[in-house]
Design brief:
The complex is a heterodimer of chains A (about 110) and B (about 120). By secondary structure, chain A is mainly β. Chain A has strands spanning about 5, 10-15, 20, 25, 35-40, 45-50, 60, 65-70, 75-80, 90-95, 100-105, 105-110. Chain A contains no helices and 12 strands. Chain A is globular and about 45 Å long. Helices cover about 0% and strands about 55% of the residues of chain B. Chain B has strands at about 5, 10-15, 20-25, 30-40, 45-50, 55-60, 65-75, 75-80, 90-95, 105, 110-115. In chain B, strand 5 (about 45-50) and strand 6 form a beta hairpin. The interface between A and B is medium-sized, with 18 and 19 residues.
Chain lengths: ~110, ~120
């Protein structure tokens, strides 16, 4: 079984600042994938970034980077240069096989002008 | 990119009626689709894995007779909420897995309100 823990129910950040959203996970699988999704108020799930358990380098996608610390079982999302449009719910998820995701509780990010 | 469409996006029904939600992959074939349920400001909970041409695999605690899943073609999976009650009101989201390079795409979600 897999478990994802997001301990920050809500986070606030000033526009143009960087913010880190925490995610820790638990799994007995040797091979797994870690995902971050953004869910705006419209409800759609927007894929942000992916990290494979065997990837040695931290994943980056534009303003998003994933701080992967395998020994600590953490996969924090870093958003640089926050924008007002970044305000949304953010979910961390884990998958032992591609497709079947276990999500964390989510973090509501609010970006202030 | 690949698109997954859900229909209807919003539905209101009376208690005791059945509601069908469609999840359609528009430009790729999906042998596997997933159905999630989400309460307001809560996490997505996996309900079942839908496999084309075979029975769905339900997660523990999900009533298979209440949430009927059919995956009759490579581009369409349906979720039918039978004899709906107010506690079934929720946001239902599907995702579809491409057969080739194993990418995953989510639908826009369907908001069900049972009166």
């Amino acid at each position: 079984a897999q478990k994802i823990t997001q301990t920050q129910p809500g986070m606030f950040v000033q526009e143009k600042e960087a913010v880190t959203l925490d995610c820790t996970y638990d799994t007995s699988d040797q091979s797994y994938g870690l995902f971050w999704y953004k869910q705006p108020s419209s409800g759609e799930m927007i894929f942000l970034i992916y990290q494979g358990s065997y990837d040695e380098q931290n994943a980056t996608e534009g303003r998003y980077s994933l701080n992967f610390q395998k020994a600590r079982k953490s996969a924090n999302l870093v958003i640089s240069a926050s924008q007002l449009g970044d305000s949304a719910m953010y979910f961390c998820a884990i998958s032992p096989s591609y497709g079947k995701l276990t999500f964390g509780q989510g973090t509501i990010l609010t970006v202030h002008p | 990119g690949a698109v997954v469409s859900q229909h209807p996006s919003r539905v209101i029904c009376k208690s005791g009626t059945s509601v069908k939600i469609e999840c359609r992959s528009l430009d790729f074939q999906a042998t596997t689709m997933f159905w999630y349920r989400q309460f307001p400001k809560k996490s997505l909970m996996l309900m079942a894995t839908s496999n084309e041409g075979s029975k769905a695999t339900y997660e523990q605690g999900v009533e298979k007779d209440k949430f009927l899943i059919n995956h009759a073609s490579l581009t369409l999976s349906t979720l039918t909420v039978t004899s709906a009650h107010p506690e079934d009101s929720s946001f239902y989201i599907c995702s579809a897995l491409t057969s080739g390079n194993r990418e995953l795409f989510f639908g826009e979600g369907s908001r069900l309100t049972v009166l």
